[in-house]
Amino acid sequence: MPDTPRQPSVLFVCVHNAGRSQMAAAFLTHLAGDRIQVRSAGSAPADTLNPAVVEALAEVGIDISAEVPKVLTVDAVQASDVVITMGCGDTCPVFPGKHYVDWQLPDPAGQDVAAVRPIRDEIERRVRALIAEIAPERGR
Q1: Residue 47 bears catalytic tag
Q2: How many angstroms separate the CA atoms of 94 and 58, rounded?
Q3: Who contacts 96 (Cβ-Cβ below 8 Å, separation ≥6)?
Q4: Active site residue 14
């Protein structure tokens, strides 16, 4: 029997876990399905998601209205193969053997949905590239 490749895991981290990291996690879950384990967290999580982010994702058929910001834990970092940071700077723990990528993206905090759309679209583009890199579909 051929070996089944292990499911890669990705952690998206930003400060509040209310915008960028939530969008990235939602796109990765939506586009990759069960091929990739997805987590998101914030170094100082907000109380609620950014409503403009929720609306911008709803426009493309992704509902994150039930999500809540989660606190970044050492366990979440240790359990992830790829850690993608988005503006959390030195507050993100770094562990040897993990692949870290920093996505420089505008912060959607305080922005209206029109300002969030280009951030959403750039996140989707980057997530599609990430999927192609770490979990390409077999047989293509």
Answers
A1: no
A2: 33
A3: none
A4: yes
